[in-house]
Fold:
Amino acid sequence: MQTLNNKSNVMPVVAALQVLADLCGDGQIVVTNQGSARIWPKLRRRPLDFHYNPSTMSGAIPLALGLALAQPQRDVLAISGDGSLLMSLGSLVTVVGSGATNLTVVLLDNGLYEVTGGQETPAARSAVDYAGLARAAGFPSAAEFRDLAVWQARAADVLALPGPRFIRLVVSAAPHEYLTSSTPPLAEQLAGLRLAVSN
Amino acid sequence: MFTGPEIETIFAELGVTHVVWVPDTAIGPWEHSLANSSRLRLVRVCREGEAWPLAAGLHLGGKSPLVVMQTTGLFESGDALRNVLFDLKLPIYSLIGVRNWLVPQSRDTAKTFAEPILGAWGLDCQWIADPTDKPKLAEHYRRCQAAGTPGVALMAEGAP
Structure:
């Protein structure tokens, strides 16, 4: 059986994230973690970006939800890996139950525990329908993309759908040079985020 | 220990904006008062591990959250607590119900390990063991907030 990562129809993760970085509005809060926390700072640097590292695994979605509830006037983007989401699938239910509509959960699905060296998740050899899980949890908008050109063409429309939104991006593993890069210092990020949300 | 209206009043007067919780049998009766409060918002999570980062997000967004759960949930959510209180260094306050603390003959491990584990983390704890301790909750919360440190109120519970 093939794993997600050796299928040919997956998007290069850096290019997939670049689409989001290009569309990100000035007032939008972005929470990354794990692999995305290493890639995003090389694509774009904004005061409202929080690269959650060191993190607690599965914590990015709840942390982003807290920001969304605290800052209802802002859109919040949570970028999570599939391994993290699998550790707390109930967080999708928590998002919907909270009533927050200003949150978008972007799942980077590569079937791997990437930062520990690329071991497979329990879902790597099965066909987990993450967008279907999100819909079943009550997300009004859930979509998935495997093709970069389609994602590039439709991203803006999908991000404008009623929230909370769930977007599964089937992606390649992050290039090694990204995974070995550090995230901005945590204390600096926390101070910057606090200042930015208060403005 | 506390009635729902009592705890809602205490939390609201402390300036708590959000209560992030997983209830147990002793805490659960507060639900009506907390859910219907006009002064704070109740946020329900599916798993205690979500409560700490969710409270972190609220705090970073400028709000004043408080985490409420039972000792079993405290144990379950240990890594999330470690990350939020010690990596992120956020002064999140929590109220933890200690199951069976008021049952002397109980050998419930949810009771046995509560203090040793919190002690290992070096967290500032305040027991609310009987009704005369009730004022200590607000006093301890204010002291921790003034110091910019996390704190834990341990609320003695009976049998579930």
Remarks:
- Residues 134-147 of chain B form the longest helix (14 residues).
- The helical segments of chain B are 4-13, 31-35, 48-60, 71-76, 78-87, 109-112, 114-121, 134-147.
- The mean pLDDT of chain B is 97.
- The CA atoms of residues 14 and 138 of chain B lie 7 Å apart.
